[in-house]
Fold:
Amino acid sequence: MKKLSNILILALVLTGLLISPVFAQDDMPTDDEVNAIAKQLYCPVCENTPLDVCPTEACRQWRELIRLQLSEGKTEEEIKQYFVDNYGARVLSEPPRTGLNWLIYILPPVFILAGAFILFRSFQAWTKPRAVEADSGPGEEAGSTSQKDEYIARLEDELKNRK
Amino acid sequence: MTETTTPKRGVSLWVQIVIWAFIVGLLALVGVTLSKRQQGTVQPGDEIPDFTLPLFSGYEYEGRSEVSLSEFRGKVVVLNFWASWCKPCEQEAAELEEAWRTYKDSGQVVFLGADYVDTEPEARAYLRKFDITFYNGPDMGTRISQLFRIRGVPETYFIDPDGVLYYVKVGPFLSVDEIKSVIEQKLP
Amino acid sequence: MLAEFGYGVLLVSFVVTVYSGIAAFYGVRSKSSALVESARRAQLLTFPLITISSITLIYLLVNNHFEVSFVYEVTSRSMPTYLKVTAWWGGQAGSLVFWSWLLAVFTSAVTLRKWDRDAEFLPWVIVISSITLTFFLGMIVVFENPFTRFWLSNGEVVPSMFRPSANATIFTPNDGQGLNPLLRHPGMIIHPPMLYLGFVAYVIPYAFAMAALITGRTDDRWTRITRRWSLWAWLFLSLGLVLGGRWAYDVLGWGGYWGWDPVEIAAFMPWLTGTALLHSVMIQEKRGMLKHWNMILVILTYSLVIFGTFLTRSGVLSSVHSFANSPIGPFFMGFVTLTLVSSVALLIWRWPELKGETEMKSMLSREALFLLNNLLFMSILVVCFWGVIYPLISELATGQKVTVGPPYYERATGPLFAGLLFLMAIAPLSAWGHSTVQTLGRAIWKSALAALVVTGVLFATYTQNIYAVVGFFLVALVLFATAHEFWRGARARQKAQGENIFAALGRLMGRNRRRYGGYIIHISMALMAIGILGIEIFQTETQGTVASGEKIAIGDYVVEYRELASWDSPGEGVNYTRAVVDIYENGIYLGQLYPRIDFYYDSQQNMTIPGQRSTFRDDLYILLVDWQPVSSIGATFKIYVNPLVNWMWIGSITFLFGLIYAAWPDRDPADAPARRKVTAGNRQTSAAD
Structure:
């Protein structure tokens, strides 16, 4: 681990010191075009940092590779595929929607829906005992003449009720 | 929200089973991951499973653009992980090449270079710069580096003629003799 | 000598803590109040002990004792003294000491309270907090000892606490490696302590909850006692998160403040459950419901604190924030297991006795909406938890590492956060017990109309982006509805009491600090939402390499590169490279910005400091990415325009104000009459509304 971080540090130093001639020629893809794709990629050398802002030398090289491939006329999808083939699915900002990876997209909604369902059932269970009295409840409210007074009463009640 | 289980009774058996299964599963998952993280690299004495390394053009092995570890039974395999962005790798590049040239014609030793998370143009420039002639190729999908659980680059793994790892060098070699002395251990 | 002393004191505090836990346990088992009292005193003793040890460590840090390996790792001669002090929590070993010290502060504070009414809780609270402290101290004395020194033994330098061989001598490196420059930012100096304070403070509510479960005292006493603790814990955790965001914005050079990094999420998850707890505890107080659920939440919050700390410190997760691989992993894993299993087992055991008064009159009542709020917080938790855990599953099952990044989290949590905003707008208007569509409708229609008008204006003049429009509508709805709630309350009081409106507002807010502090927090959340919407939806960026005198345009802004200078500052051990750029907006000169790169010699690391121009409308955020020493080509800049992001920080300050307002101890005895009878010794708890 130590050593890897040493290498990272060295790479960082290099980023600062190395000359990277990026000539703004007309046919060369611009930095913005490169970053648009780099934003969606993650380099294994600096985990969890998007490629467009990662300062290491390895990531600078990746960005230059994107530029090269763009200049060869490759599309965004082709470039991303190239990186996946070469460095594995971890370069993508999300797991590709295949096989086991579907779990990550399916499980949270399932859990959330299950939670909502349980909560809904609980509501039903909790309101049921009150079903008999329920008739008078809304009637009272509809019949309340002055909602302002009711509000003051409620507010006073709530403020007092604190223990 | 577990509030639903009727409060008067205890937690129903199947809910308990689900909860405990979840906790055990989570702890097992984290525990296994933790032990994997703490394992470090593969250790001397481990038999290395077969892997395939694609080779850069110009660095082919007997005209083929792909080699498998299993082809080299009977030879000492020196597997070096490197990258063009890695400064310490440059310290040992010339030494590795020199050692390779020493054993090249004996037919008893093979040097393989696995290029870790690198881009091909830069990698080629690096190989040219240090005049490297041994077999080199990209570690596609970081599969080989994951197999060896490398911690960084450079790292060099020495595999004996029976396919068993016998020495690991973490960090750059300081001299050609250091490389040679490790190789000599397994040469007749 | 000092190192041995510091370590010795740590060992003593470890023994004292172990004693305290055991004595409390046997004291309660044998009904010996003398033993419990002894345990309490032992617990109190941990605070001065760990303080002494910490002071020793700080002394070593400040005085360049590089023979101590921790000092060598986190300081260097060129660092200013205040940074050497804060280096205390700049590395694994020191931060564990810091953590233990905070824990001792909290547990000592809680043992000092008057226990008359809650004597049965006391031994168990001591047991729980002692176990936690034992664990942290154990981790320090066994695995991560900050007082370990370097020894020259048989020609090799070995780190060791004691003389490794008879002829070994202490080895003192000339200079230390220095604190990671990323950690030298003021935000980073305060961010970890705040976060740790928040984490550690949650041990108190957890200890009381466990004590309640163990003793079988299942009324809501524990929630009443710990209410203010939870609030302060939540305050610190929230502050820690916000400061972390500010730090990332200023230092990491992402152009953003939150990257959905696993370590950030590990700190965010207890915040989610903690926030849910703040709300659901109110239902228990008002309606006697949800006793189970509150227990679950408090256990979940504490477990997430421990689990998150474990994930980031053991090296299971790797990220910019995490500590390097460390031997504490298996030990920590054992503690996580102990915490999880024992809490869940206790809860299941006591489940039948925690009977709540479950009745619900209306799906629109305040309690029903609070439950919905809890559902949304839990949903966000599920999304976050799964996003952090899934890569581990994938790696084990398929051998394939995957990244779960911002697109996943943003897509999944976006609608949930929108739902929370909506609830924030309507829940304060609904009544406890019963509300109907009519009462709610009557209460909100004016605010909704006003929000619609504002949104309409924004739609016509600012943005047609559907997500932004919905977001701004919700923000406006929260702001209007909450403001209206203040207004209604003040008006009602004004009429009833004949006070002037400001006095009425002041009295109203003073009478229920928690409620109105909470509303201020709601307002602050809405303000932060403006900032989040701004940066998420409207952020623009460009990058370009220009020679001196050339310009880069972005939106209405033009940035003109003037010059660049690079110089060494030997005293600080830093090389500065600073670019000077002129900025123009629509052709009008606005001033100069100075993006720079600082290179720290001791740690051989770069830090990218952006040039920022901040207004309420947007931030112009310029990074110096690269430069050419022979300046024919010039320098490369990355420029972001981050609209509205300032509202994030304005919201944060409002938030701080609201929270302190809500959590500040009430001293006004005039409040007393409304309370049910309390014993004299119970002031602290009864004030905890």
About this structure: Chain B touches chain C through 27 residues (CB under 8 Å). Residues 21 and 177 of chain B are 56 Å apart (CA to CA). The domain at 52-184 of chain B is CATH 3.40.30.10 (Glutaredoxin). Chain B has two domains: 2-39, 52-184.
